[in-house]
Design goal:
By secondary structure, the chain is mainly beta. It has 3 domains: 52 residues, no CATH class; 167 residues, Lipoxygenase-1; 138 residues, Lipoxygenase-1, CATH 2.60.60.30. Helix content is 12%, strand content 37%. Strands 13, 17, 18, 20, 21, 23, 26 and 27 form an 8-stranded mixed sheet that branches. The protein is elongated and about 80 Å long. The N and C termini lie far apart (88 Å).
């Protein structure tokens, strides 16, 4: 190699290093909108905000990679730190029953929570699919998975929450709580499984999802009385440093606030007629949770209703409403009950009011009765950081 060639190589390396340093110092996202090519070949004007909302998909596009290097993690020295949390059930068609769970992700310092009701966050989390479920009857078997994906978890503390989704279907197709009836949470960092295996909620031995169900015949039944002792909630804390060294720790839900609104069971009262009530809980941020308003911090199931005939008991029906807050520590919650009018004009008003039973973990906190023909503010529950809860 001649001295000229060696000098040229050294000069070239020096120029490349200078360019790299300058690029690293000026590596910024474009502030202008630019054209990207969609999968169908059409072109649209987009900006880097689109990439920040869904980096898993958008940052695969060459135009996004070029115009949004900071958002897409393509600046010199950037280290990839992609976290995936996949929730799925085992593939075994011998399973009989129905079971459904859901997953959510919260990042410390960010107000938006990543879950099915908010599937694109400003901090780069995408939620794919609705609830994870498994269903088997012996004649058919099917299941669906759910996934939450964080594009850049460097210097982040993530909390992944998994909860059971109660449903009427599982009353009629309930499993025996065996291992096939529990979902598996599989966490991967940059494509590698990071927990040594899948995570699950604790086995609820001899605890079914529902109790108080005593179907008299095809129509006469109590249905939807959720078992407050059933625990399908847990959390996983993920802490990653700037080099994407991540620690992953599972912890059980230790401050579960539950509330069930229900009328007396069929055949336990002499009253007849129709009555329907709904329960809503409001947190300190003013966010409402009910069967009509899904949230990331609370899940609601069913309405409290009863239909009891004096002479045609064959058609009697009873159902309860259930609220589940997996982590009530440090929170304040206002419970309201509202009467829903309508059907009592046909059947008469069932006179006995519904009762709201409130639980902290596996213990009853209090019980209150609702006035029979109006709305009422039932009670306020306040819990400190150590799950010492009181009500008024």
């Amino acid at each position: 190699m001649t001295s000229f060639n060696l000098a040229f190589i050294i000069l070239s390396l020096h120029i490349l290093a200078t360019i790299s340093i300058a690029y690293a110092q000026t590596c910024q996202d474009s502030t202008e909108r630019f054209q990207i090519t969609l999968d169908d070949g059409t072109q649209r004007l987009k900006g880097c905000y689109t990439a920040s909302k869904n980096p898993w998909e958008q940052c695969e596009k060459i135009e996004m990679m070029f115009n949004c290097p900071k958002t897409c993690g393509n600046c010199p020295g950037d280290i990839k730190c992609k976290v995936k949390a996949d929730l799925q059930f085992p593939q075994d068609d011998s399973f009989k029953g129905f079971h459904s769970d859901f997953v959510k992700v919260q990042r410390e310092g960010q107000s938006q929570i990543c879950y099915s009701g908010n599937d694109r966050t400003d901090w780069g989390c995408s939620h794919i699919g609705g609830d994870a479920y498994v269903e088997g009857t012996g004649d058919f078997f099917r299941k669906a998975a759910s996934s939450a994906r964080v594009y850049d978890a460097r210097n982040a503390k993530l909390t992944i929450g998994v909860s059971h989704r109660f449903s009427e279907k599982e009353v009629l197709q309930e499993s025996d709580g065996n291992v096939l009836g529990r979902s598996n949470l599989i966490i991967r960092v940059n494509g590698s499984m990071s927990t040594g295996g899948s995570l699950r909620h604790n086995r609820n031995t001899y605890k079914h999802t529902h109790d108080g169900f005593d179907q008299v015949n095809a129509l006469n039944r109590n249905i939807g009385f959720v078992n407050p002792l059933y625990n399908g909630d847990y959390f996983v804390d993920i802490v990653c440093d700037n080099s994407c060294n991540c620690s992953i720790t599972k912890r059980n839900a230790e401050c579960r606030l539950k509330a069930q609104l229900k009328f007396p069971k069929v055949d336990e009262t002499n009253y007849h007629g129709f009555h329907k009530d709904v329960v809503t809980v409001m947190n300190s941020k003013g966010e409402a949770c009910s069967t009509e308003a899904a949230t990331s911090w609370c899940a609601a199931y069913g309405d409290a209703l009863t239909l009891s005939f004096e002479t045609q008991s064959y058609y009697d029906f009873n159902m309860a409403s259930f609220i589940n807050i997996p982590d009530a520590a440090g929170g304040t919650f206002d419970f309201d009950i509202a009467h829903v009018t309508g059907e009592e004009s046909k059947f008469g008003l069932f006179e006995e009011p519904a009762q709201l039973d409130v639980y902290i973990n596996d213990s009853v906190l209090t019980s209150v009765s609702h006035n029979k023909n109006g709305s009422s503010k039932a009670l306020k529950v306040t819990c400190d950081d150590y799950c010492n809860c009181n009500y008024q």
